[in-house]
Amino acid sequence: MYTYLLVYGVMIIKLIMAIVAAVIFMHIFGSTSNLKQMTPLSVIINFLLSAILSGFILNKSINILDFIVVVLIYGALITLLNLWSFYTNLGRRIFVGTPQVIIQDGQLDTEKMQKLKMSARDLASVLRQHKIHSLSEVEMAQIEPSGEMTIVKKGDKSYSIVLVDNGIIDTSALQKIHRSERWLRRELRAKKIRNIDDIFIAQWYRGKLYVVKKNIEPK
What we know:
Helix content is 51%, strand content 18%. By secondary structure, the protein is of the alpha+beta class.
């Protein structure tokens, strides 16, 4: 009897610790998940965390100290990957993804379509969902990292393009508006901004550049 109580008692403690760990990770790494798409990094976080928690609960040879050490190491690695994906272009491409433009200036990129394994029927279906029945109506279309498609109809100038995101220049966005990085830096200097890292967001809208700087604390 005592042995059973001890076994189940340990299991209950492990379950409580697993729930606490899951809640902590959810708040740290997923507190704004309703504002984000499901990225490769978030899939990795969820998959590995599930494996760690299930292994801790079901494997009797894993003690509480081992679990704490593994969770701390895992949390540190995920934090580093989050920072890398947030502050660098390479990290963002790998762990978040980049939009894939399939229609630019009204021209359909068939090679990109084949690369994405997207058929003409798939494209037509998505266009119909946006109440568009002909490719001739489309100025620009891109597949977002979430898998959703953003479509801009010809003559529609109400859409905006993010050129700088948290100090990172989006070269593909510059290509969409037929501008260069040199042009962007020149425009920023005209606004008395010399350091790209000081920019939270730079947005191109209706032929104008709008910039919001970070709240930088005085040194």
